[in-house]
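Section 3.1: Structural characterization of target chains.
Under the original work plan, the team committed to producing a structural model for every single-chain target entering the pipeline before any wet-lab resources were allocated. The record below documents one such target. The sequence was received from the expression subgroup and is listed exactly as submitted; it comprises 204 residues.
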Amino acid sequence: MEPIPSEETGLGPEAMEAPDGEVLGKMIRDARKEKGLTLEEAAKAAAIGRSTLSKIENNQTRPSFEIIRRLMQTLELETPQLFLQSGQSGVTGRRDFTRTGEGEHKETTTYDHELLCSDLTSKRMVPYISTIKARDVTEFDNWVRHQGEEFMFVLSGEVILYTEHYRPLRMGPGDSVYYDSGMGHGCVSVSAEDARVLWVSLEV
């Protein structure tokens, strides 16, 4: 990993108005309150300053990826969408790179996600490779749903994609699908081995 950036980075007027920063702050604040944690308690558990957490919740600073990762672990937030931040940074030349197998891992009961190119925090697309551990749709407590649209490409194995409003879709290596991620969905492996897929989530 690269050295951990400083906790606070000032925002220009455009970034301050970015709605995705507001969504991120509300998501973190709601999760903190749901766990019954004060600002001080949550900040201490995530090893960040209380003022930093307050600014994140109120969309007054753009947190680094490392800080988001700590908050995700502290508040047990499982969706990769947490990593979405403003694409209105005004930066025109950027690049990120992930070597094979060196992505940032986030495991849930149903998926094992490997986040790709995660050093860039100001982006609208979130690419990640997922190993589909779920074997039956009943393993999902609720439909997965989040803001935006999503592209999925099956790398290996076979899956069934369950979505609201559509019949289950069986897919094999090389198959792909694009769908509204606000529509409830869940994916399960149906091959002998756990399937692997490439997902690209886009906030719109």
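Residues 1-19, 84-91 have pLDDT under 50 and may be disordered.
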